[in-house]
Amino acid sequence: MTDTSTDVKLVVLDMAGTTVADDGLVERAFDAAAASLGVAHATPEHARMVEHVRATMGESKISVFRHLFGDEARAQQANLAFEAAYHELVDGGLCRPLPGAAEAIEQLRSAGRKVVLTTGFSRATQDLILKTLGWERIADLTLCPAEAGRGRPYPDLALTALLRTGTDSVRQVAVAGDTGYDMLTGTRAGASVVAGVLTGAHREERLRADGATHVLASIAELPALLG
């Protein structure tokens, strides 16, 4: 691959698992959501759902619930229960930045690159995480699926970031995340750098299979990669 890293003007970063530690919070909040719809823990149905949640980490959460529960009313009920449970975990102090993440974002911006933080969560959940970490001003822009049209694995979040920041070309975009869906977002958006990190949901094999151009131990290595 031609090295275009020094031409990158926009860096689109995932949050949970990439810049923010997950520590199983998504699965714990999902358990609460499933229970609210009568899915008992440690049953075959629950196991099947958890497997799907793990496979689709990074996807818009309402899209995950639409797949799992079928009709829109049940999906919305599950999503509300998920958000309430996740907010409770965050409020309980179980939300922290990954080591080196804030420093990496600062380095990227100091080098003249714009940074956009993206998520599969709702705006309310994203804002709670940002407020809890004191990250309200850490990035040039933050985006959730509802603000982009569709969430991952579609290219909408990366392309909306490009449009909103006035970046000239998709080849000036780098996308980084911890899931295969992050990699698909980057490749489908035409990003020149699609970097997988090993601090979250998916391992190197999945990241590469879904289009990673680079695999890093953590987001702390991204500024050096981009030069």
TrEMBL record:
SUPFAM superfamilies: HAD-like (SSF56784). Pfam families: Hydrolase (PF00702). It comes from the Bacteria. This is Phosphonatase-like hydrolase.
